[in-house]
């Protein structure tokens, strides 16, 4: 009996010894396997970059092999990140077996002290071992089937150097803007026809086609093309027009995209081979109009960079949505790792450059723009571009770095959009789609990470859903904007979402104190705030309440904000009465945008001055909303002593509430946008100081920004760079311009509220040589406006040339009516009967 027992124990000990050795070998090989995977990732990345630079088409073998590499590279990147995050900080120190000759004693001790971390380390070690085997299989498969990699020609290598050179050209944006203006015929004053809209241009173009004549805007755009592509570019445009006659909207869009591509990428077309190939395809007699437009779009798409193609294809996740915010889209691109790396720029800055380029090329269509022309949101995909990109994304296009989980992003947005269509009778089952989302998240493969979760606008969000979302450890972007969530308990976030970079809780009812105690070590963007009317109703976005009385309800500033060293954006959060949290903000040397709601006291002013001084070299945008004033009613002063003023790179300044204009504003050499609201400043003194801001191009004077009803722009206070002026028509009854006061002013916007002006609203229009548009926003009588437009347009076309447009934008119907104005108009006043308001001054 004892012998049997001894044999049984000996067998168990033998099995255990073998198991321990295997376990030790598995965990001991982890660092070596990680180094192998890292080296393979570098090689794979170089391989993919090489393939994107080759001119020849990739055969089926190369494309299949690329797909395998892409999948392995994505999983490998995930394993490397998990290793750095979860293993390296807790790696056990090497042991010599405590003198017993047992190398596994160190691992055993680590297991007893940290069982959870040991299990995590072991699971990752198994996954990495499996990944290494898969990497070896991919390499063997290439040799087995003789997959060869196309070589990079010297000519193409030279062009890649040209790409980098052009990307660093600081003047490129200005030149592209001028080219786009010529293309879209926005040069007001070039002809009366330019003011009659794109419809007139298209009608005129069809008429000119009969005479084989190109319209003026096409000839102007072709004339701005680089010399070596100008001739063939003109030939190709003429071929498209003749083949697609009569041209429709898509034909015009195709031509615009082609001309922009030729202008943006001449360095890729030095030998004109690509243009000649396109011309031959267009000359093909069998090609119909649709095929010709498709070939032109393929040509334009081929001139995009790899990363730009990836970002463009990512838009297929938003096909069911009307519009998407520019900043939201750019942050998603960055979180997904779609943007390339550029020295000296953050991923968000690179993404912004991509967005501008895609807008310029015509692949992205703006939905809403600021008064200064900055695109705020875009239509995901429109027209023929939509069909084309869906077709491209549906293929096995391995050149573009399309995320493996893009289909999951589409699924998430579908679930969110379903919640938005619910009625009040669905409240009992409001959690069902969100329960489906939680189940979907729980079922995601462990080897793939979810970087982005956009729940913007969804309804039925419960605490159990938030708890489940907080377990998605790899999440980098979380949007809860405009949801019905009321709590974001700090206990749910504690120790979780450690990789989160963007937290968007705007337009929510989250309690102010819920954010105060959070600590998210990798957070870059904290976006909060909800605009409310006097009655407590939602006032929408900031652009919707220019003349209304609103207040901002927001969350408290996190007390540990100073430890979140990666912060780039804080907008808008409440600061306590003593402003103590601002001490931590002053330590955030990567902060680019700061928006705070503050108390109007000296302590807060001191803290704000310290923040501006400490962050002078990085802060680009500052927004200060003063909501609580001291008993004396004095304005908040954030000025420096003149000798202590640092070199500021501030570009945007937004002040709301009783706050004086800071003394350092005249030395902010890059300040381009200033917005004032409820500041109650002295008009003459403030304009005198603002005119010294040499880079100021956009000035917004909202409700009660000045004391007085007349704003006089005199020649002594010349605004050399001012292009856009926005003012409130209720509190400012008249603008007066003297000669040379604003020589570059292009656009004047007036928010017409409840007051109807009988006198002149703008005087001295003849002193504004660059004026293109006067835009009025309010509640208008559209029928009366259309009658006025028809009469004025007929008279204008028959006699005097048009100088600028008067655009009436109705706030209710979201429609606008444009009325041309002649060169003899020196003043402007609201015509009788065009507004629905009753109060008259």
UniProtKB/TrEMBL annotation:
The protein's UniProt keywords, in alphabetical order, are:
Coiled coil, Leucine-rich repeat, Nucleotide-binding, Plant defense, Repeat
What would be an example GO MF term here?
Answer: nucleotide binding
Indicate whether Kinase appears among the record's keywords: no
What SUPFAM superfamilies does the record tag this protein with? L domain-like (SSF52058)
The UniProt record lists the Disease resistance protein winged helix domain at 318-378
Q: Which InterPro entries would you find in this protein's record?
A: Disease_R_plants (IPR044974), LRR_dom_sf (IPR032675), LRR_R13L4/SHOC2-like (IPR055414), RX-like_CC (IPR038005), Rx_N (IPR041118), WH-like_DNA-bd_sf (IPR036388), WHD_DRP (IPR058922)
Disease resistance N-terminal domain ranges (all copies): 8-93
Q: Does the keyword ATP-binding apply?
A: no
Instruction: Write out the GO biological process terms.
Output: defense response to other organism
On the tree of life, the source organism's domain of life is Eukaryota
Which residues does the UniProt record annotate as the domain Disease resistance R13L4/SHOC-2-like LRR? Answer: 446-783
Q: Which Pfam families match?
A: LRR_14, Rx_N, WHD_DRP
Task: Give the family per the record.
Answer: Belongs to the disease resistance NB-LRR family.
Q: What is this protein called?
A: Rx N-terminal domain-containing protein
What is the species of this protein? Answer: Digitaria exilis
